[in-house]
Amino acid sequence: MQSLGMDYLNSRLMFGMVPGLESTRKLCNALGNPERSFKTIHIVGTNGKGSTSYYLAGILQAHGFKTGLFTSPHLVSLRERIRVNDIPISDADLDRLLLQVKAAAEQLQVEPTFFEVLTLVSFLYYAEQGVDVVSMEAGMGGRLDSTAVACGNIVVLTSIGLEHTEVLGPTESAILKEKMAVVEADHRRNKTFVVGGLSEELLAEARAYASELGAEC
Fold first, then answer.
1. pTM
2. How sure is the predictor about 189, in pLDDT bands with cuts at 50, 70 and 90?
3. Is 195 exposed, middle or buried (0-12, 13-18, 19+ CB in 10 A)?
4. At CA 164, angle to CA 182 and CA 23, rounded to 5?
5. Once rounded to an integer, what is the mean pLDDT over residues 41-69?
6. 3-state class of 137 per DSSP?
7. pLDDT above 80 for 141
8. Is 98 helix (H, G, I), strand (E, B) or coil?
9. 63, 117, 184, 197, 215 from 147: Cα distances, Å
10. Sign of torsion, CA 5 24 76 86?
11. What are phi and psi of 40, to 5 degrees?
12. Average pLDDT over residues 48-77
């Protein structure tokens, strides 16, 4: 029999993808801002995000950091999306934290999406587990992706291609800026971009845009 937490999560599928940070920020505040309790490295891009996130988490763990990993989608079990030191979240913890997000959402009278709920569950879990750093794969885009509220100082940009153009923009240049703008969720300086898989033209644009954002590239 499916758990109450999973019933709630599946009920979120009807909302599809809704770009924006308002609901996530409200719920983070209501839940005690768990995303502020650990460091975050964001991984954005068109292709290569999942593998890069996984490799990065392995490197961090090998260097002695207690490491969270957030990826999507999953292959076999939804628990794969939320890991600590490469161990997926347990069914019991997943259900408990889903219900915690559900209670907060009902109290605030907001309707988070499937991805927003999982992002919030991951924040709560990583905070509970006392992780040092999270390798966090963005969902769609960057600027309006719910993972952006974690406000990491390092952003890895894997590649750029035409995708979700109705939301991210009609050109590779527009998509590049939308993904790099994941740092705009937090206006602190001292940000660093690590980029790869870009044409010379896009690389020049990435460097110029990073400079506008007060970041190194």
1. 0.92
2. low
3. buried
4. 50
5. 96
6. strand
7. no
8. helix
9. 24, 11, 12, 22, 19
10. negative
11. -130, 135
12. 96
Please name the amino acid found at residue 16: G
Category of 141 on φ-ψ map: left (φ > 0), alpha (ψ -120 to 50) or beta: left
Q: Where are the alpha helices (DSSP H) in 109-171?
A: 114-129, 165-168
Helix residue spans in the chain (DSSP H): 4-11, 22-30, 49-62, 91-108, 114-129, 165-168, 172-180, 200-212
Provide the β-strand partners of residue 40.
134
At a CB cut-off of 8 Å and minimum separation 6, what does 171 contact? Answer: 162
pLDDT, position 52: 96
CB 197 within 8 A of CB 208: no
Question: Could you give the maximum distance between any two Cα atoms of the chain, in Å?
Answer: 54
32-35: Cβ within 8 A, 24+ apart = 34/123, 34/124, 34/126, 34/127, 34/128, 35/123, 35/127, 35/149, 35/150, 35/151
Q: Span 129-147, mean pLDDT?
A: 91
Contact in structure between 89 and 83 (CB atoms under 8 Å): yes
